[in-house]
Amino acid sequence: MKPPPPIAMLAELTHRCPLSCPYCSNPVELSRQDAELDTDTWARVFREAADLGVLQLHLSGGEPASRRDLVDLVAAAREAGLYTNLITSGIGLTEKRLAELDAAGLDHVQLSLQGTNPEMADEIGGYNGGFKRKMQVAGWIGKIGFPLTLNAVLHRRNLHQLPRALEMAQEMGARRIEVATVQFHGWALKNRDALMPTREQAKEATRIVTEARRRLKGTLVIDYVPADYHEDYPKRCMGGWGTSGLNVIPDGTVLPCHAAQSIPHLTFDRVQETSLSDIWYAGAAFNAYRGTEWMAEPCKSCDRKTIDFGGCRCQAMAIVGDASATDPVCIKSPHHGALQAQADAHASQDDAVLIYRTMPGKAAEPAQ
Amino acid sequence: METTDIPALPRGVRLHHDKVRDAWVLLAPERAVTLDPVGHAILTEVDGARSFGEITRALAERYNAPIEQIVNDSAGFLDALRDRRFLDVTA
User: Please, which of A201, A269, A361, B79 could form a disulfide with A159 given CB 3.0 to 4.6 Å?
Assistant: First the structure.
């Protein structure tokens, strides 16, 4: 059966970033600046994406504002007919540059939040003055009138700031907030001792979100990513492997999800050699875990198999060592009990230090 | 939704014809909502100037349908969009 066309594409324009968040979703092996796709190639990829059926384009990184051609890339995306979303920490954006992005047709901004005060945010981001700058950028975003989503990334160190994050989203005029508990892939996997929420924190976050959704209905939309090590059923990762989204990384490699390179037996195609359409429909990595044929028990006979598609393949790889195993978050996995114990053990490492993301040839300065 | 309410698509929410799937969709921040012909018909009347009463009268006339049914369908649809912040409403 032919899979449906993708709805969304994440374009990781660069892995460069002024911040060094210890939970960065980028792979531990980062792409270097000299390997990044140029402006014209990205523009072609955007057109191929639109022709393939992509509606939503997420411009991400690293920090996408670290690309000097960001305004041209937004213009190219809009010209291709894509709904264009900028996922940014705000660092590298000036009032002038935001006005240029506005003129280029940028549809929406998603601003990340590392903490609700300078002490927390700058420690987590590893960037002094970052919080102050972000608040300034949020003001300019509001002044221009960009639709705004605040993306609060939460973990054991800052989950107590969730109520304040909800207030800040309203103060900034955001229509949406993503309350995203850290998912343990990429750099975050190195930081489980420092970042794993306690079971009580995870429960409290769910309670706060449930209450806030009721109270703020019609004012602030809340998307919630729970602390999945403490859950009983896994997340429907990527809406199902190869069913709705794809990810292009800075060097042109196309992935079914941002962590897919952690599955060692998969091979990936690049936009320089293969069309996006061929990669989506015929690429080996995209077909590896599509549908339900690849499943083993307990997924194979489970009535939830088309609800969560067995959870996250990369998490099964990272924890069980087998990418086709049931996500160990699932209560039906034989590894569920061990994972819950492991989560509690990580969460009790009170003295664990943050291991910051580092990159080869790190470009610390914003583009402008 | 009251008769005098004026619905409007806010910035960042727009109608888009999806050539690949041959369908109308409503594009919004990080969401794409596929519209059925009824939903599309309602949203093409939403211009930020006319009231809900005027919009439903126009639809009833154009589709030769009972006004009560149009009001019910449209109110349910538009209220759901408002709850998701895909629609602004001024009184």
Answer: A201
Contact A85 B29 (CB under 8 A): yes
Q: What are phi and psi of B25, to 5 degrees?
A: -130, 155
DSSP at A3: P
Which residues 6+ apart lie within 8 Å of B52 measured at CB? B1, B2, B3, B4, B5, B6, B7, B74, B75, B78
| Residues of chain B contacting A149 with CB distance shorter than 8 Å | 29-30
Minimum distance, in Å, between the CA of residue A214 and any CA atom of chain B: 11
Residue B91 lies in a domain: no
Contact A146 B12 (CB under 8 A): yes
Query: Could you read off the pLDDT of A268-299 as tens digits, one per residue?
Result: 999 999 999 999 999 999 999 999 999 999 99
**Distance between B61 CA and the closest CA of chain A, angstroms:** 31
ipTM (interface predicted TM): 0.94
The answer to whether position B1 is within a domain reads no
H and E: helices and strands count for chain A: 13, 9
Total beta-carbon pairs less than 8 A apart between chain A and chain B: 57
Question: What digits encode the pLDDT tens for the residues A167-192?
Answer: 999 999 999 999 999 999 989 999 99
pTM: 0.95
Any domain includes B70:
yes
E strand or H helix that includes residue B54:
helix B52-63
pLDDT for res A367: 46
Give the model confidence (pLDDT) of A187-204 as tens digits: 999 999 999 999 999 999
B32 chain-A contacts, CB cut-off 8 A = 7, 55-56, 83
Nearest residue to A30 (alpha-carbon basis) of A286, A246, A253: A253
Domain of B70 in residue numbering reads as 6-86
- Which chain A residues touch B27 with a CB distance below 8 Å? 55-56, 83, 107
Q: The domain that contains B48 carries what CATH number?
A: 1.10.10.1150
> According to the model, what pLDDT value does residue A361 have?
54
